[in-house]
């Protein structure tokens, strides 16, 4: 049998073990879990990991990708990172420099992964396994600018004219995007409630990101003035450049917009209508031409010619030279 001293020592040892195991047990458990997590991380570093890497596509200068494509791909890699502990510098580069227009389907392989030196990893596979690109030729053309105007000016005022500088813009982009353009519309300009002329810089109303313009914006001058009424004057036609030709009809009707604030008189003598015969011989017996009408004296700036009727007249050969 153990004596009293031995039993006392056994009790002290048991107490010591209980204190080690039970005192601050939550702290000890947390430390154990942390050690386990670190062990898992070290273990996983030696196995397969998934790394998201940027996708770089090289295309000819006169081509552009027009379909949706991923900006990154996922690479399954083996190994541990270098001593810095950071992820390796990886990328996937696809070379389409010699490709033509149309669909190009490219298979993505582990051999295509660009891996920096001393990275400590090896690419195993790439996801997605293949990507389809649609290439189109880049073209350009010049188109007129159309300024979009919204609203109505203050009562008693009219929109006189909209002047755009420049009025022609150069556009560049994929063929299917550029071909449909007949004109290029701006963002809307509001004239609601306006009484005075104003100037504004306006951007173009383009929905896609693949179309580039030069310039990127235009200066627009919006001219407003007093409300105008329409007057119609009958103006005789004068034939210039060749004698012996008669105009049929011998006059044109000209519609003129006149501000209500204009206090002067407007008569047929304030305008002149002419047709100029081209300098070519011989002339046909009948020649169709468009008349030109202009003011014969300075008038209010708000007075403008709206319409000429008819838009085309016929010159008939008479007894001239």
Folded structure, characterized:
The chain is mostly beta strands. It has four domains: 4-45, no CATH class; 48-137, Beta Complex (RNA Polymerase Alpha Subunit, Chain A, domain 2); 147-226, Beta Complex (RNA Polymerase Alpha Subunit, Chain A, domain 2), CATH 2.170.120.40; 228-317, Beta Complex (RNA Polymerase Alpha Subunit, Chain A, domain 2), CATH 2.170.120. The protein has three helices and 24 strands. The chain has helices at 4-22, 25-45, 175-178, and strands at 48-58, 63-65, 72-79, 90-95, 102-107, 113-115, 121-127, 130-146, 149-150, 157-165, 168-174, 184-185, 189-190, 198-203, 212-214, 217-226, 228-240, 245-248, 251-259, 271-276, 286-289, 292-295, 304-309, 313-317. The strands form six sheets. Strands 2, 5, 8, 11, 12 and 15 form a six-stranded mixed β-sheet that branches. A five-stranded mixed β-sheet has the order 6-4-1-3-7, with no helix packed on it. A five-stranded mixed β-sheet has the order 22-20-17-19-23, with no helix packed on it. The termini are far apart. The model has no long low-confidence stretch (mean pLDDT 85).
């Amino acid at each position: 049998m153990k004596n009293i001293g031995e039993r006392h020592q056994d009790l002290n040892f048991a107490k010591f073990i209980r204190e080690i195991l039970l005192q601050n047990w939550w702290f000890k458990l947390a430390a154990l879990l942390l050690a386990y997590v670190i062990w898992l991380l070290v273990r996983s570093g030696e196995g397969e990991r998934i790394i998201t890497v940027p996708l770089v596509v090289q295309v000819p200068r006169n081509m552009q990708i027009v379909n949706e494509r991923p900006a990154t791909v996922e690479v399954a890699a083996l190994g541990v990172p270098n001593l810095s502990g950071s992820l390796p510098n990886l990328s996937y580069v696809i070379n389409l420099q010699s490709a033509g227009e149309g669909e190009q389907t490219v298979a993505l392989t582990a051999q295509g992964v660009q891996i920096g030196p001393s990275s400590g990893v090896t690419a195993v596979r790439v996801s997605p396994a293949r990507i389809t690109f649609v290439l189109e030729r880049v073209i350009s053309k010049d188109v007129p600018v159309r300024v979009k105007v919204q609203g109505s000016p203050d009562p008693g005022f009219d929109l006189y004219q909209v002047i755009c500088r420049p009025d022609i813009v150069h556009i560049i982009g994929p063929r299917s995007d550029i071909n449909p353009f007949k004109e290029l519309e701006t963002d809307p300009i509001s004239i609601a409630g306006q009484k005075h002329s104003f100037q504004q810089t306006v951007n173009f109303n383009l929905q896609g990101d693949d179309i580039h313009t030069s310039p990127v914006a235009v200066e627009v001058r919006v001219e407003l003035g007093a409300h105008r009424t329409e007057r119609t004057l009958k103006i005789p036609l004068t034939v210039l450049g060749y004698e012996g030709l008669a105009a049929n009809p011998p006059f044109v009707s000209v519609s003129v917009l006149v501000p209500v604030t204009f206090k002067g008189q407007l008569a047929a003598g304030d305008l002149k209508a002419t047709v100029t015969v081209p300098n070519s011989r011989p002339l046909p017996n009948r020649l169709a031409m468009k008349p030109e009408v202009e003011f014969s004296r300075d008038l209010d700036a708000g007075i403008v010619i709206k319409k000429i009727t008819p838009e085309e007249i016929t010159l008939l050969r008479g007894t001239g030279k």
